[in-house]
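tool=predict chain=A
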Amino acid sequence: MSAKRRILLIGLDAADPGLLRQGLERGALPNLAGLAKDGAWGLATAPPGFGSGAIWPCFYTGVSPARHGRYFYRQVGPGDYEATRFDADRFGAPAIWKVLSDGGRRVAAFDVPKAGLSGELDGLEVVDWLVHGPVYKELRTLPESFGAELSARFGSDPMPQCDQPGGRNARQHLELRDLLLARIRTKEEASRHYFAREPWDFFATVFADPHCVGHQCWHVRDPGHPLHDAEAAALVGDPVMDVYAAIDASIGRMLEDVDDETLVLVVSCTGMGPNYTGNYVLDEILRRLEGRSKTLGFDVWGRLKASAKRVLPLGLRKRGRRLSRRVEERVAHGDRQQRSCFTVPHNDIAGAVRINLVGREPGGRVRPEEVQGFFERLKRDLLEVTNLDTGTPIVEDVVLTADYCEGERLADLPDLFVLWRRDAPMDRVGSPKIGEIRHVHRGNRTGDHNADSLFFARGPGVAPGEIPPVSVLDFAPTLAALSGVAMPETDGKVIEALLDR
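tool=predict ok
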């Protein structure tokens, strides 16, 4: 174990590795380029199929989703067919800053995505201040009194929700970009203020803005996107790269506060790209492969939702969203229990499927000894489904979660993930077994996640240069080793290239 090291962790929530590399090559991100020149950098991979809702917890706990228990903010677990919200107190492993605090280190963590409050902590913790996808939907801090100080000095989130049903026009995209740039500066100023307040052993802060701008503005920067807005592009330019550049500038100013003995770690944690997905047709594909029709309740509810979307004002639909979701889950309960497998809520990064397993689900239909054969047949059928507009398969691979994750929370996760080939929209898909399915979906999120992350590390003993890909599970045990603290059981391993030998 290396000697105790002071650590500054800066997160870039869902900043795309490919776009970051373009920015490095073009000179648009000089401070990240400086970190790459002076320190180690590389890709971090994640278990296949999981989205940011699982990957961030993998990063800060060092264990797989089968042990920390989270794959999405709404989950279907054993003994039921309805999706319920994942509460932060259900995590099966502590965050790294809690581990370090228990090991006698003074810590601070600002807005690390998907993390809840850690209980007793020697230091500061901020949840749901300037974030994408809040955990509690309100600012919470440790100590509790710190929230009032933070809000009084730096204000509250000017954009608690970036999604805007119906999308944005050119002027609204400009306003969004400018609001995000201002929010970046607020996060920087707060981070620098509290970083300088005392000699922290570990200080973490995360910029949520790449996540928001990636979801909302990918079509502005991408001329090949079916929703490309040339008017917005002419007015705004590339709002995604503007956000990355603003964060790069903030990182540069934050590095001015860091001495030569501090290890600086910058991590993007998941990427972003065009939102091409088959999630909206997957359940119908599964239904047709099984030879089942929608239940009457499911079919009627679908028609009612479509009619409401056409005739009800947006404000009224938003106010009724919570009730609508409860009704939808009750309807889905009756539908799912009659099937061999069914989709469960998940990010567009992959389709998530749960097998109706005998002994786990109340109406189980597939016996445990039949799972492997069932999976192999399903995988073969899914790989045959073609994008009828391009002539190419829509599925890259189908993976069993149990092949990549082990742990006591495995039953809380989807049983398999369908990894999409995400090079074009999937408006018309088909195969000999399912016929043709048409479903044109153009949501307000024109960008969505990919699985890879990019990281940069600079500090004493860290040799410059690109290193081979690591796992997101490796960072928590590495941070513990750098801090001279014993890490609880972990699925990751220490990144030796980041240790001072």
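The chain has a mean pLDDT of 93. The chain has two domains: 6-272+448-498, 279-292+339-442.
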